[in-house]
Amino acid sequence: TVEDWNKAAERMFGYTREEAIGRRNPIVPISNQAVFDGVIARVLAGEELNGMVRTTRRKDGTMLTVRVSTARYCDAAGKPVGLMSLFMEGPAPDADADDPPAPDPSA
Description:
This protein is α+β, with helices and mostly antiparallel strands. The chain has three helices and three strands. The protein has helices at about 5-15, 15-20, 35-45; strands at about 50-55, 65-75, 80-90. Strand 1 and strand 2 (about 65-75) form a beta hairpin.
């Protein structure tokens, strides 16, 4: 469930804060929810995922290639309570221009 959605996410993905907060992640198609849930489990277990290149779909249906870094956050007792992701538009800076980004199983 999306807990926060900022202006940058609105601009990048096309969903307003009101459309995203309290709902399943709108940029993850239902058909790929199981893959996304697996990523969440890995991150909540302590794995940090940095610079993954993924292709997702904006609200208007256009495709968008992003770099994603995701890490968990914990409460005061150290218990994992959620995760935070940073999205940057475009492929990784060191990606070979001739190689298309890897397909995203969650798109």
